[in-house]
């Protein structure tokens, strides 16, 4: 059974800093890797996803995947107070219908 | 664009009561999901459905039933509410690329 773990559990960074969030998974046959962001009291919303090894950048956000290390990460450049949220990583392995989520990293960006 | 609606927004029940939560989507997506989120934590899959009248158990299906009578709707029943239970139940549907779209949630409190 797929296990997905996130680190750290929580993080406080100053405005303008680079933030790095980590996610490890257990199934080497996993095929889809995503980050979701959930602001307090709101629904989770997909942020970025990647299918193959390497990096993908969208604005201030970069996702990096290393399948051999069973690890992917999200990097936020120039972190803003509006980035404060719960960040959930998610992985698909086997059936493309089933996404396994990590427990989340709570990020606070202080002005 | 589409939208997912969940009713009710807040649900207060008594211990042992059977409670039903409803979800509607107008994305015309095939696959729908029910997740449970405990305070500030990650998402745990309760049930999912890949088409009308199909039901697949997730990791947390014990104590729940589900129903998918038409493509646009997916219902979840708590078969016997547990005292002091508090959680948010999130409904989602899956797009072509694997991304899941979430509803605003139903917040359950059991007295």
What features would you describe in this structure?
The complex is a heterodimer of chains A (111) and B (111). Chain A is built from no helices and eleven strands. Chain A has 111 residues and is mostly beta strands. Chain A starts with a strand and ends with a strand. The model of chain A has no long low-confidence stretch (mean pLDDT 95). Chain B contains no helices and eleven strands. Chain B has strands spanning 4-7, 10-13, 19-25, 32-37, 43-49, 56-57, 64-70, 73-78, 86-94, 100-102, 106-110. In chain B, strands 2, 4, 5, 6, 9, 10 and 11 form a seven-stranded mixed beta sheet that branches. Chain B has a four-stranded antiparallel beta sheet with strand order 1-3-8-7, with no helix packed on it. The mean pLDDT of chain B is 94. Classes of the chains: A mainly beta (111), B mainly beta (111). Chains A and B meet through strand 4, strand 5, strand 9 and strand 10 of A and strand 5 and strand 10 of B.
N- to C-terminal distance of chain B: 38 Å
Helix tally of chain A?
0
- Radius of gyration of chain A over alpha carbons? 13 Å
Can you tell me the overall shape of chain B? globular
Helix content of chain A: under 10%
Find the structural class of chain B using helix and strand composition: mainly beta
Instruction: Return the string of H and E elements of chain B.
Output: EEEEEEEEEEE
Helix fraction of chain B, binned, reads under 10%
The major pleated sheet of chain A works out as: 6 strands, mixed
Uncertain stretches of chain B: none
- What is the tally of helical segments of chain B? 0
What is the strand tally of chain A? 11
Order of helices and strands of chain A: EEEEEEEEEEE
Instruction: Determine the mean pLDDT of chain B.
Output: 94
Shape of chain A: globular
User: Radius of gyration of chain B, Cα only, in angstroms?
Assistant: 13 Å
Query: Residue ranges of chain A: pLDDT <50 for 5 or more in a row?
Result: none
The portion of residues forming beta strands of chain B comes to over 45%
Q: What is the mean pLDDT of chain A? A: 95
Beta-strand percent range of chain A: over 45%
> What distance lies between the first and last C-alpha atoms of chain A, to the nearest angstrom?
41 Å
């Amino acid at each position: 059974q797929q296990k997905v773990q996130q680190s750290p559990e929580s993080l406080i960074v100053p405005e303008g800093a680079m933030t790095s969030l980590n996610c490890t998974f257990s199934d080497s046959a996993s095929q889809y890797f995503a980050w979701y962001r959930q602001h307090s009291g709101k629904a989770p919303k997909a942020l970025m996803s990647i299918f193959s090894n390497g990096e993908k950048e969208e604005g201030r956000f970069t996702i990096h995947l290393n399948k051999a290390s069973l690890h992917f990460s999200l990097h936020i450049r120039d972190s803003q107070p509006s980035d404060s949220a719960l960040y959930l990583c998610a992985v698909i392995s086997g059936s493309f219908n089933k996404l396994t989520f990590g427990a989340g990293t709570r990020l606070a960006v202080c002005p | 664009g589409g939208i997912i609606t969940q009713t009710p927004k807040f649900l207060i029940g008594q211990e042992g009561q059977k409670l039903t939560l409803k979800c509607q989507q107008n994305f015309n997506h095939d696959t729908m999901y029910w997740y449970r989120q405990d305070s500030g934590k990650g998402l745990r899959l309760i049930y999912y459905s890949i088409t009308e009248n199909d039901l697949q158990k997730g990791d947390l299906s014990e104590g729940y039933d589900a129903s998918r009578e038409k493509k646009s709707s997916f219902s979840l029943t708590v078969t016997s509410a547990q005292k002091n239970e508090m959680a948010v139940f999130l409904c989602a549907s899956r797009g072509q690329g694997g991304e899941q779209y979430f509803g605003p949630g139903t917040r359950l409190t059991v007295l």
